[in-house]
Each structure stands twice: as structure tokens, then as C-alpha cells.
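User: Before I run my own analysis I want an independent prediction to cross-check against. Here's the chain; please return only the C-alpha cells and, at the end, one sentence I can use as a sanity check.
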Amino acid sequence: MGIRLKLLVACLAFLFLAQVGWWGYTIWNQGESKREATLVGLETRKEAAHATWAAAGGTARSWESIAVRFSGITLIEVDGQPRLKIEEAKLSSIARDRDGMRRMLFAEGGVFLLLAIGFLLLLFRAIQMEARLSREHTRFLHTVTHELRTPLQALKLASETLALENSPEKTREYAEGMLQDTHRLEALVDRVLVAGRLEAGMADSRVGPVNLSQAVENGIESWKKMPLQGGGSVVVTRIASNLVGQADPSTLPVILGNLLDNAVKFGQGNPIKVSLQQEESWITLRVRDHGLGIPDRELSRVFERFWRGDADAHGAVAGTGLGLHIVEETARLQGALVEAHSEGEGQGAEFVVRWSASEEALP
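Assistant: C-alpha cells:
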């Protein structure tokens, strides 16, 4: 979070606390002023009562005839002599009012202070989130721009060269390169569109019994044939036969493809292990690489949209930060669970997707 945002939050916190302090100080002074005014009024009444009583004779009987006119004043004997005094009950009432006001002040002030602190914490978190989203948005735009510029430049160069080239062999070579760049652009646009539909809540899911064993095997073979994706990658599989789970068949290539793409990007050329086994009531897919790994501090954020962690520090790692987010959201829509595991940097990572095992017959 920037210095200006921190200063803004600090100023708001200071203003809140100053307002609470001023409010408490004002109420406290008002209460004390009211108490002093009440005591002064009683003293004035006692003096008036004494003057009237003295004029009436200054006896106990004469006081009885005028006492009703001076509430809060009573006659007592001090060393055998009658004296006027403010009633203890009246003084106790004033003390209770003051204590009640103080309790109210502390209670209301405490509640207001807690609300103010809660509001400031929410504001602080909102500002932090806004700043983080702004950074991620900027990084996403930078990444997408880079991802688009690279194949576009290659297409432009190939097209210019193709226009000058008369050799059929070279023409075919450039055409294949242009086709690969086109596939790369198409995959990037598709990924952004899928993420947009998921974010807007426009994606639906049709869940039913699916032969996940066959779907995963077919998905791996299709992925290997994708240009700039699985070509040349070593995938070691351990897939149990005829495992049926509750899943959306249309989303399995998306989930598997993104997990395999992620394993290629961060696997540093090491073999990728894919397994599909039944674990109790779950059909569990595991995709493991032996590459860069994930620090503990980042494990909880790997499925966030645009999150790439320290990937930008590795110049060879391309991507938009949408693949794993798409995996989690797509799996969630069909009731599947997604997990990420890593023993730390340099130890590789494993991504797990769990579908409920199906007892329904295949259609």
C-alpha cells in the first residue's frame, strides 16, 4: 500500500479518535457543570431557607411551617443547636446521577470507539484490497500486452518474410509458425473470455456421471497435440480404469489443460505425473510437477485471479494468472474440490481435483 494511502488512513484514524475524545471531554464537562450548578442551587436555597427560618423565629416548630417551600433542605441538631442542611438523600441523588452519567459516557464512548476502530479496520482492508487489485490489474494488462505482442510480432515478421519468399519449403515452415502463433493467440483470448464468464456468473455446469478415466486419457492426448502446449512434454500417467464420477464433461479439458499448462510453465522441463484414483467416495485427479514449487506464504493465494506470486521474477514463465483461477471456479460450479500442495520452493507442486464418485449408470 502506498505512502499516501497509509497517510490517509492515519489521518482518518486520528480524526476519529480526536472526535471521540472531544465528545467524551464535552459530555464529561457538561456533567460536572450540571452537578456544580445543582449544588450551587441547593446552597442558595439553603441560605434562603435559613433567612426565612430565622425571620420566622428560628425554632423547630417554625421550620415545620416553612419546610415545604424548601425541598432538599432539612433541619438537624448540631451540639444541641438546630441547623439547616442539604438532605443526604438529595446529595446521594446528585452523586448517583453523576455516576450514571459517567457509566453512560464510558459505555457509549466504548461502543462508539469500537465501531470507529471496526470501521477503520474495514476501511484499511478495503484500501489494501483496492491497492492490491490495482497492482494485479496493472500487472495483468502488462502480461496480456506482452503475451499478445510476442505472437503478433512473429506473425508480422513471418508474413513480411513470406511475401518475399519463393521457396515452397520456407513457405510451409513460415505457415506452420504462423499457425502456432494463431493458436497461441486463440488460447489466450479463450482463457480471458472464460475467466470473464466465470466472474460475471454466466457460466453454467451440467453435472452427470462421466467416465473420468477415459476423459482424462483423451484429454492428455489432445493436450499433447496442442501447438506450444504439450508438445515434447513428458507426462507419466497412472490412471485407474473405468472410474465414474459426477462431473461436467465439457469442462474436463479446461481443468486438465490448465493444470498441465501450469505444470509445463513451472516444471522446468521435468516429467509431469498425472494420476487418477478412487479415494474413498472421491475420484481424485493429481497433477504433479517437479519444478519451482510454491512458497508456503503463497499457497493460499494460488487460485486467486491474476495471482502469479513470484512468477514474474522468472523471465521464462509466461502467463496471465488466470489458469488456476479458472480451474478452481470451473470445479466449484460442478461441486468438485480443488487443492494445491507444495513442500516449498524448488520442491515442485501438486494440484488435486476431487469429484464425487458416481453410483449412477453411464448414459
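Sanity check: The CA atoms of residues 1 and 128 lie 6 Å apart.
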